[in-house]
Amino acid sequence: MIIIMKRGAADSEIQSVSDRVEKLGYASHVIRGVENVVIGAVGDKDKEPLKGLIVMAGVEDIVAVRAPYKLASRNVKPSDTVIEFKNGVKVGGGHFALMAGPCSVETPEQMHLAAVAAKAGGAQFLRGGAYKPRTSPYSFQGLEEEGLKILKNEHDKTGLLTVTELISADSAQLVASYCDVIQIGARNMQNFALLKEIGKLKTPILLKRGLSATLEELLMSAEYIMSQGNYNVMLCERGIRTYEKAYRNTLDLNAVPALQKMTHLPIIADPSHGTGRRDMIIPMSKAAIAAGADGIIVEIHPKPEEAWSDGPQSLTLEEFETLAREIKPFVELMGKKFTVAK
Ligand code: PEP
Ligand code: MN
Questions:
Q1: Fold category of 83-338 in CATH
Q2: In this predicted structure, what is the pLDDT of residue 46?
Q3: Counting CB atoms within 10 angstroms of each CB, which of 52, 74, 89, 125 has the fewest?
Q4: Does the C-beta of 129 come closer than 6 Å to ligand 1?
Q5: Any idea where the domains of the chain sit in the sequence?
Q6: What are phi and psi of 2, to 5 degrees?
């Protein structure tokens, strides 16, 4: 159930309602939208007693949320979630994010060249995996903490916000201490123990859609994170598995407008994993932006032919420069803007 507070409801009224929700045995989530504050009462208790809260000061309405995802639902919070970072960069609600970097952190030189190119193209985020969930146990598994240090070093040098993948709950604190966005990869989208753990952190999350996950399943995974109190979740469409073999995955751009109806969370598209093909990344980036994506994440590498992972889908730094230039009019056409660091 959600309790919609009147416009301009006093903080003391919001607090009293929230306390009452908890007294009734529900978890209370105070969500501040542009228009109203709503209080999500989440739990598996009898709904009846909550209806009595209608008489409390400041309460406008009490409504049931039919979707199984509650906190992620657009019904609960009609206005787009805007995630604001420490340097003033924003994502969502008209603020467009460009995230670029290699699949894996390999060497300080490789990361530095990628970071300089990312920054020159106007990216606000530098990606790079230090823990790699590989299909084969014999493939490169990531530099782990050493990789996090290389990534952080580039953050310190360039000011770019960093995105890196977390694959196990044990290293959640460690990864969070080095990066600005924690990526949960497609293969871990339904690792519920991991989702609960990152829900306790304040670090924004980039949650990638599972290889054959439905949108509802993706949103239920977001719900796992949000139900622990971390509301800063970006969803990522990174391609799904279909029968088509001409490309690695099928970037499901239907998901972008469909998700926008279902949720207020920002939606990022990943045309690199979504296609697996360097030659398709620029056109599919433009298509994702035209479909309404709040950002794109792309893999770039100074020498894709020597990349330790995902070389065939990594853009050269020159190709990235073209991408960065060519997507700008699409972003503008969609009425969005790139926020820059303060
Ligand atoms: C990645 O971002 O390099 C990655 C492994 O992505 P995904 O989880 O979408 O396959
Ligand atoms: Mn990759």
A1: TIM Barrel (3.20.20)
A2: 82
A3: 52
A4: yes
A5: 2-63, 83-338
A6: -125, 140
For residue 274, report the distance from its CA to the centre of ligand 1, in Å.
10
Burial of 331 (0-12, 13-18, 19+ CB in 10 A): buried
Amino acid at 208: K
Distance 299 CA to ligand 2 centre (A): 7
Closest ligand to C-alpha of residue 134 is 1
Question: Which one of 127, 191, 251, 273 would you pick to mutate in the ligand 1 pocket, going by the greatest count of ligand atoms within 8 A of its CB?
Answer: 273
Determine the distance separating the centroid of ligand 2 and the alpha carbon of 313, expressed in angstroms.
8
**Residue appearing with tokens 């599972």:** 210
pLDDT band at 342 (very low <50, low <70, confident <90, very high): confident
Q: What is the dihedral of CA 320, 311, 186, 113, to 10 degrees?
A: -50
Task: List the residue whose alpha carbon is closest to atom 9 of ligand 1.
Answer: 186
**Is the pTM higher than 0.85?**
yes
Q: Report the atom number in ligand 1 closest to the C-alpha of 208.
A: 9
pLDDT digits (tens, 9 = 90+) for 17-63: 999 999 999 999 999 888 889 999 998 888 889 999 999 999 999 99
Say which CATH architecture domain 2-63 belongs to: 2-Layer Sandwich (3.30)
* Mean per-residue pLDDT, 181-198: 98
CA 221 remoteness from chain centre: 12
